[in-house]
Amino acid sequence: MTEKIQAIVIKSSDKKEKDKNILLFSHEKGKFWATLKGVKGANAKMKMAQNPFCFGEFILEDGKFGKIVTGFESIETFYELSEDVEKYFEGTAMLEIVNSLNFSNETEQTGVFLTLLKSLKTLCFEKVENLYVLDKFLLDVFALSGFPLYTEKCTGCGTSAFEHIYIDYNTGELVCTACKNYSCEETSKNSYLAMKILNNTSLDKLKTVKLAQGSEEALLRVLVKNFEARFERRLKLIGILS
Length: 242
Ligand SMILES: [Zn+2]
Known about the structure:
Blueprint: E1 2-14, E2 20-26, E3 30-36, H1 44-48, E4 55-63, E5 66-76, H2 85-100, H3 106-125, H4 132-144, E6 165-168, E7 173-175, E8 184-187, H5 189-199, H6 215-231
Parallel strand pairs: 3-5
Antiparallel strand pairs: 1-2, 1-4, 2-3, 4-5, 6-7, 6-8
Helix pairs in contact: 2-3, 2-4, 3-4, 4-6, 5-6
The protein binds zinc ion.
């Protein structure tokens, strides 16, 4: 069976001497591996299909040991990401996050696909501050997975008069001093404010946002910890959060 799908390359690994395995992410089929045969000898068009970030139309056929790519047409290579090391690490972190996710339904899968594509475009082509796109991406992933982290009110008692804000890492919820328990950690006012602003700003408006100095990094630590608690997966984010 031959099929044509639009997908993003999440990662690639060497298979045999000339072949590559690529992990693709499409909104119809989710994540799956496919083989790129004879990449070294292949034409330039097919060679591009081994690069992470690459978004394009793949023609796939069923082989003996899984899917084989027999055709590729690039839509967006996001090549510019490799020219800015900070953006490159931030984009790679988003791919690693998708790599670590297991989707529980199609709505979530489609939502994450569209958010990833939009986030890569914003990161690649807009003048946005370092880490803002990654913070927002994680907040969006939580919401799409049914565990939205940001709330205006304490999820325990409903008060909006937060004197101190705590995150319950058992449930991924924000609570007040009265509702906190042993698994809660206090989060700074600046991180909470950064979370609120990013949550309420759409990706195309992200370039107009300015967060308090250092709050994007403090927020990222909270988001990564919440991700690891929610999905029980360690995130290896290279070049980010030393
Ligand atoms: Zn409370």
